[in-house]
Amino acid sequence: MSTIFLLLITFTTIDRIKCQTFPPEFMFGVATASYQVEGAWNYDGKGVNIWDTLTHNHPEYIKDGSNGDVAANSYFKYEEDVQLMKQLGVNFYRFSISWARILPNGHINQPVVTMFHWDLPQTLQDIGGLANIYMADIFVDYARLLLEQFGDRVKWWITFNEPAIYATGYTKAKGFAPTINSPGVGDYLVVHTIILAHAKTYHMYKENFGNSQQGKFGISFNCDWYEPKTNSTEDIETHERAMQFYVVSLSRNVCKEGDYPELVKEIIASKSLAQGFLKSRLPKFSALEVEYIKGTFDFFGLNHYTTLLVYPGQMKNQVPSLEHDHWVSTTMDPNWPGTAGETRRVVPWGIRKVLNWIKNEYGNPPLIITENGVADEGEHNDTKRIYYYTHYIDEVLRSVVEDNCNVIGYTAWSFLDNFEWTSGYTQKFGLYHKSFGIQSQSCSTHSSITSKFKNDFKFGVATAAYQVEGAWNEDGKGPNIWDTLTHNHPNYIEDRSNGDDAAKSYYKYKEDVQLIKQLGVDFYRFSISWARILPKGHINEVNQLGIDYYDKFINELLNNGIQPVVTIFHWDLPQALQDLGGLASKFFVDIFVDYARLLFAKYGDRAKN
């Protein structure tokens, strides 16, 4: 294994900053997601998830035709992974649990854990997936199993990773799993179900596990910054619409009002009626649900990558659709440094604006940056990544020291190169190569960070189950919606790949932990594969091998001084739940709560976020 000299310089510098200037309790970590690194897609009883299905049936949907069947092989190499994390020197490792590995059929018969990171068991997708409101209860069953199995050690839990991005799998027939072509309807149903599932899981945890496990509970929202293209009134109003639709419509439910913003409700209702619908395409929460949802978080999970310039839309989008509803067009300044991702540029000041916006909008809640990172094409001279992290972390530091933003942790995405969803393996986010050697680098010394974080500030890295675990149908894991999409429609993925193997983190989790340790971060944010825990998505059929995998993984993290930060759901919905309607089903909320309760029971004693 070769060492990236430049990365070691960077994290040595970060470690020095952390010790001298961050708050003592601040956490640094790294992250992955089960499908993206575990591999072992069909080993040890794992059920098929929606990404297994997608990448196997449609490798053309993936840019390079790949999948997560092997990935980083972390399922078999978790001990090596843990040693790598240990070498990094991080405090925590955020990973996701594969629902299909724990519950192959999707049902229930200091790591940071993501309960759901997009790899839904295929059997659950087959009943509608997260568009089915009844999936909320199935998720709760799955969560309950995780809590029972791991809650004694996992003290940081994330229910869902980026609900809005996961919901894009319901906007077109090719692309993100589960590839449901229902824009402006299906995606809204999914988000609605996820919000209810999260709230039910939160209450289930507090009522059944909170006193004994003393864990922290949150959800990770994707939140880019939407800067007005000009100072015109029209562009400023467009900025407000963009923030309301892309950020507030989700986070406001959980963090503040328990309901969608009035602006969003009014716009969608008006356009729905004009389009011939008898009522709004946006589902409505009852008054009781609004009160039930409000305040269901212990920390705000922020995933941030870039900044976009916004101006009024051109009304050329599909009708109905989110894009037509919000009437926002985006562009980027060509002078901003580019990345391997065509839609992302390096704009460090954007993260500081986002952090201040959240502070002002929600009363400065405790906030963990659960994902932040940059992709390249695998260059060994990794100066662009160093530039990105140096400048973004500096803006985080300024937000803490100068703006008094209550940021308590930072997670680098990603710990390992992994299966990057529809981009396959063409984009490299990892601090380590998929081969587990640190990328070798050479460059001149970069500028030191002169400002100081509080001593308790934490850094971490992140992944998601489907993106790194692999082992898509091994050890009892059930199929998730990304299994379905990548298998059935590989053409939806830029390189035609899938997460069947991904980074093989399911086998190589010990190696992963050692890599994270080498980075010197405080925590590792990962997601739990719902389909690995509950292969059919429901609480009645629990995959013990999946439970055991995350149990060993969480222990490996803690034994190496890395705090787990867990995302309960990171897009990999069990296919069995999708087949029941998925997040659009009214029953999804309770299903999610059951899933979360399981996670709390199993891991909540150790995962506190």
Structural class, from secondary structure content?
A: alpha/beta
Counting structural domains, the number is: 1
CATH class: Alpha Beta
How many extended strands? Answer: 21
Describe the structure.
The radius of gyration is 21 Å and the shape is globular. Helix 7 packs parallel to helix 9 (186-208), helix 7 (135-150) packs across helix 20 (544-559) and helix 18 (505-519) runs parallel beside helix 20. It has one domain (5-218, 292-303, 339-441, 453-607): Alpha-Beta Barrel (TIM Barrel), CATH 3.20.20.80. It has 22 helices and 21 strands. By secondary structure, the protein is an alpha/beta fold. Strands 1, 5, 6, 8, 9, 11, 14, 15, 16, 19, 20 and 21 form a 12-stranded parallel beta sheet that branches. Strands 10-12-13 form a 3-stranded mixed beta sheet. The chain has a two-stranded parallel ribbon with strand order 2-17.
